[in-house]
Design brief:
Elements (H helix, E strand, L loop, with lengths): L1 H22 L5 H17 L4 E4 L6 E2 L8 H9 L17 H27 L4 E5 L2 E6 L6 E3 L2 E5 H5 L5 H12 L2 H14 L5 H22 L5 H10 L11 E2 L5 H8 L5 H22 L1 E4 L6 E2 L2 H7 L9 H13 L1 E5 L5 E5 L3 H12 L3 H9 L2 E5 L10 H6 L6 E5 L2 E3 L12 E8 L12 E7 H13 L2 E5 L14
Parallel strand pairs: 1-8, 2-9, 4-6, 13-16
Antiparallel strand pairs: 3-4, 5-6, 5-7, 10-11, 12-17, 13-14, 15-16
Helix pairs in contact: 1-2, 1-8, 1-11, 2-8, 4-7, 6-8, 7-8
Protein name: Signal transducer regulating beta-lactamase production, contains metallopeptidase domain
Pfam family, one: Peptidase_M56
Keywords: Membrane, Transmembrane, Transmembrane helix
Length: 487
């Protein structure tokens, strides 16, 4: 959560700085309107997006005598699990931050709803006159002219006496036609839900000012002279301020509005600035978005003794009698299990010591003898020696996301919050696999992550080293073909 807050505020700040120095003084008002609205949504949602990065493969060397390697004991000392801190008695309850957020958000939403209710009630029982696809609401008191959606609120006395300048009506009509009230409500909603980002208040001010630029531009597109309109604008400086949700002719920052009216348009400069913004957005997206890595088990340089055995060329081929004993032993320790389809699958089950003996025979086989195993659909292989590899802090923090990772800690399925009890340096080994198709059904995560702590790694190390040989048989037998018990 803290990471999200920081990234969101930094992103919104950078986009606001880019607007202030590049776009605010340029007369590309519609582009600026879209940019400000998109920048708010962009900075609030982008930290929630996850980008998949290419897999990270780390090469680690393993020496000839892995069991006695100094790095095992050294790593165990360096990465020994730290005692889990006990929560202090005077610590704040875990629900308090969420409660505080909810109370503030509810208060801001209620304020916005109350302001809308005030505007809606203000037109109740008033005389309403149609005006160029908008509606004029005639108010009994001397109020400032303002608009909300397609309703324009004006003093009834000034309307009856025809004292309202056409420029003011044209200005408010532009607010109504361009639906500026939608922008205002959208901004107020974001401020209420993401109130912890104070920069949204600056976005609100920039959006409201840009609305005035657009409405002023609509007035000056007609027969009104710039100087005449500027004098009219200055005459309204002391007018009463309207509600925060309304668009009013006498909106502040008159100096900036006067300057914008006389700003020259340079299409080349505008194009360059738009191109810079187009480049800034993807760069910022890559920097702020969460990143996940398709981590693969580190490739290891196998010991010299193992490389020599695995690369045997056949000079030490086993005898025919040893081959018969090899196949007879596998058959002896094969158990046949009937599956749901009525077929019988062979399963090889024997002690690790016997598996190691058969693997020693397998190492001496010639290529032709190994081909005999493949013909009989027998597979013999030995896994690499387990080596410690701690994740980076960024990877470790990503693992806590329940929408991406399912966690198996020390061979037990645990909630992602269990990782809060550990540091990234407490992890000795991890293995990540992506789920596809039917495997995703009923799961909220996309990756299955197996993690071993230093303590568990050290505890099971000897057993894993001595039990690395895997012997399997592929294929199936019908019930008639399966050997009977006792044979």
């Amino acid at each position: 959560m803290v990471s999200y807050l920081i990234k969101s505020i930094v992103c919104s700040g950078l986009l606001l700085v880019a607007y202030h120095f590049l776009l605010e003084r340029e007369k590309m008002l519609r582009f600026n309107r879209f940019y400000l609205l998109a920048a708010m949504a962009f900075s609030l949602l982008l930290p929630l997006i996850t980008i998949e990065m290419p897999s990270q493969v780390v090469e680690e060397a393993v020496t000839d005598n892995p069991v006695m390697q100094p790095f095992v004991s050294a790593a165990a000392a360096d990465h020994a699990p730290q005692p889990i801190p006990v929560q202090e008695r005077n610590a704040l309850p875990a629900y308090l931050p969420g409660l505080l957020y909810g109370l503030v958000a509810a208060a801001l939403l209620l304020r916005t709803g109350f302001q809308m209710l005030v505007i809606i009630r203000s037109k109740s029982g008033r005389r309403i006159v149609s005006f160029n696809h908008a509606k004029l609401v005639l108010m009994p008191d001397e109020t400032s002219t303002y608009s909300f959606f397609n309703f324009i609120f004006i003093p009834q006395k000034a309307f009856d006496n025809r004292d309202i300048p056409n420029e003011i009506l044209t200005h408010e009509l532009a607010h109504a036609r361009q639906m500026h009230s939608l922008d205002i409500l959208f901004t107020e909603l974001l401020i209420a839900l993401w109130w912890f980002n104070p920069l949204l208040l600056l976005y609100r001010r920039a959006i409201r000012l840009n609305h005035e630029y657009l409405a002023d531009d609509a007035v000056l597109a007609g027969p009104t002279e710039v100087q005449q309109y500027q004098l009219l604008l200055l005459d309204t400086l002391l007018a009463q301020r309207t509600t925060a949700l309304a668009s009013s002719f006498n909106y502040p920052f008159t100096k900036k509005r006067l300057a914008m009216m006389t700003t020259n348009i340079n299409l080349r400069i505008q194009l360059i600035k738009k191109a810079f913004i187009a480049l800034l957005l993807p760069v910022l997206a890559f920097a702020v978005a969460e990143k996940t890595y398709s981590q693969q088990p580190a490739s290891k340089t196998t010991p010299k003794t193992e490389r020599k055995a695995d690369n045997a060329s056949g000079n030490e081929a086993v005898s025919e009698e040893e081959m018969k004993d090899f196949f007879a032993t596998i058959e002896k320790y094969t158990r046949y299990v009937k599956n749901k389809n009525g077929r019988t699958d062979p399963m090889v089950e024997m002690s690790p010591a016997l598996e190691n003996q058969l693997y020693a025979v397998y190492e001496r086989m010639s290529d032709m003898q190994k081909q005999q195993l493949r013909t009989k659909e027998i597979t013999v292989f030995r896994m690499s020696i387990p080596v410690k590899k701690a994740p980076t802090p960024e990877m470790f923090e990503n693992w806590k996301r329940t929408d991406i990772f399912g966690i198996w800690l020390n061979e037990k399925h645990v909630p992602n919050s269990e990782l809060n009890k550990y540091k990234y340096s407490d992890i000795a080994e991890y293995d990540l696999s992506k789920l596809y198709g039917a495997a995703l059904k009923g799961r909220s995560y996309k990756y299955q992550l197996g993690i071993l702590t230093n303590e568990y790694f050290d505890k099971t190390y000897d057993e894993r080293v001595n039990n690395r040989v895997i012997i399997t048989r592929v294929g199936w037998l019908t019930p008639k073909e399966a050997p009977k018990k006792g044979k």
